[in-house]
Each structure stands twice: as structure tokens, then as C-alpha cells.
Amino acid sequence: MGRKWNNIKEKKASKDANTSRIYAKFGVEIYVAAKKGEPDPESNRALKVVLERAKTYNVPKAIIDRALDKAKGSADEVYEELRYEGFGPNGSMIIVDALTNNVNRTAPAVRSAFNKSGGNMGVSGSVAYMFDATAVIGVTGKTADEAIDILLEADVDVKDVLEEDESVMVYAEPDQFHAVQEAFKQAGVTEFTVAELTMLAQNYVTLPEDSVAQFEKLIDALEDLEDVQQVYHNVEFEE
């Protein structure tokens, strides 16, 4: 499970490193989370999750503050959370999560991205059953054994703890996200390399070499859409 996460994360990070697109998407996500409750992460758990993830992407404080100020003000934009499912080349599976203030814009755009890049949309439930909602927390400066001891002492249940590259990755149920982070914070960890609520595939596939470029084109097309927040898939890239 874990090696695939770092593989996916690295692909996304390298793509997003040279664009401000991700900051704009975080701005929307922070605003929506803040409007669900109080614009205070200490009392709004959904907002706290988004802000913790924003830190790992180095989202500028100005972007975060602007979104929070907008939520505190008189702005009342209505966004819907939508999920689309589909298939890429060689039966690869894709989940697309969107936040939109115009459903009539988003659905056709997602469908067009699939169609133009060799994929096709599926019906609701056609793909999601092959993925598990998972909290992923990454830390440095600890071994896997040390991380396990920290979590056991805090009585936090997790799915797995693995050493990957230079990080220790903890996989847990989504409702354990804050408990995992708090356990590490109590142990002196102040920064996290990963802090995600994500969808991890139950099984990963490696595409034939002649399909990789087409698949990457499809993922890029989906991620480039204004309303798309997250794209999950079951493809493991060759390292």
C-alpha cells in the first residue's frame, strides 16, 4: 500500500511545483470547509484537516488567510461536493472529487477530459468500491518501531506503519486522522511530510509502456480542471 502512496505523491508534487493552480484550489477548499462550521480549526475538524494538508503543500499564509477572511465575511457562495468515477487505458480506475458552484459546468468538463484522453466516465459506484478512504500521515525523524510505540502509548488504532524513502507513513481510518497527528505532536513532532484524507486503491496496476503517456495525459487533463480538487487512481508508475 505505502510504496504506491509515495509514488503517486511524488508524481503530483513534481507537477504542482511550478504552478499556482494548487493554491487556488486550496483557497476554495478552505473556504468551503470554513463555511461548514466556525472558521476556526480548533472547533471545525473539517477545516483543520484541510489546513494540515495545506501545510504539506506549502500553501502561502496569504492564500489561507484570504479564504478564511472570505468565510468570515458576507460572502455566501454555494459549492457542491461531487464525485465522478471512470476508467482510463487498460482498465485503470479513476475517482475525481470536485467542488463546484456550477454543476452544469463541471460535469461536461470532466466527461470531456475523459473522452478526449482515451478514458470514459462510469456510473456512480462503478469504481469507488475498489478504493478505501484512508488517513495518511507522514513523519520524519522516527523509525517505524518508534512510531508504533508512540501510537500504542496513545492508544491509537492504525492500519499500517511503513518506512518509505525518508519518511514513516502511517495509514489509518479517516476518523483517526487527528488522533494520529496528536499522538505525534505529543511526542515532539512539529511537522508532517504528508497529512491527507485520501482514497487508496485496494489493488494497483502497472500500465504497458505504450499506455503510460496516454494515462498521464488523462490525469493532467482532469487535474487542470478548475473545479477538480482531487484525482485518485490505481496506477503505479515504474520508478
TrEMBL record:
Keywords: Cytoplasm, DNA-binding, Transcription, Transcription regulation. Its main location: cytoplasm. It is found in: Cytoplasm. Residues 79-235 form the TACO1/YebC-like second and third domain. One of its GO terms (molecular function) is DNA binding. Residues 3-73 form the TACO1/YebC-like N-terminal domain. GO terms for cellular component: cytosol. InterPro entries: Integrase-like_N, TACO1_YebC-like_2nd/3rd_dom, TACO1_YebC_N, Transcrip_reg_TACO1-like, Transcrip_reg_TACO1-like_dom3, Transcrip_reg_TACO1_YeeN, YebC-like. It comes from the Bacteria. Pfam families: TACO1_YebC_N, Transcrip_reg. This is Probable transcriptional regulatory protein IDH41_12170. It comes from Paenibacillus arenilitoris.
